[in-house]
Design brief:
By secondary structure, the chain is mostly helical. The protein has seven helices and two strands. Residues 10-102 form the GUN4-like domain. One of its GO terms (molecular function) is tetrapyrrole binding.
Length: 128
């Protein structure tokens, strides 16, 4: 996610993060996604996550029930409880769509009590 931080001139996550995601250049987003697809044999990437998220009924607008179902589907959540980032699997044995993970997201959800709104923005981009 450091690459996305650089592409959006971000230093951290805040309430404006989803607006920055909306403004991330499509060439940067597609390049990052394609690298994930290429190096995982199509198992990981934003476009893989987008398919899972939309298959579950996800839209650009945050919906807690769908968001938790998505977390369960990609292995970020177990039985409605979000995992700490150090419990994320960073290899190809992870579930489809598990990566890329959003390390800061896990802190934001578990510690701060935020929601996945900025990721729903990313997974709803037309150019992905």
């Amino acid at each position: 996610m450091g690459v996305i931080y650089k592409a959006t001139n971000r230093k951290g996550v805040n309430a404006r993060w989803h607006k920055d995601i909306d403004n991330l250049p499509c060439t940067d987003l597609r390049t990052i996604n394609q690298l994930w697809l290429d190096y995982s044999g199509g198992k990981f990437g934003f476009s893989v996550q987008k398919k899972i998220y939309h298959r579950l009924g996800g839209t650009r607008h945050y919906n807690e029930e769908i968001w938790i179902a998505f977390g369960d589907a990609v292995g970020w959540c177990k039985g409605g409880s979000w995992l700490w980032h150090d419990h994320i699997t960073y290899n190809t044995s992870a579930p489809v769509g598990h990566l890329p993970s959003f390390r800061f997201f896990f802190y934001f959800i578990v510690e701060v009590g935020g929601d996945g709104g900025f990721i729903t923005s990313l997974l709803s981009r037309e150019d992905l």
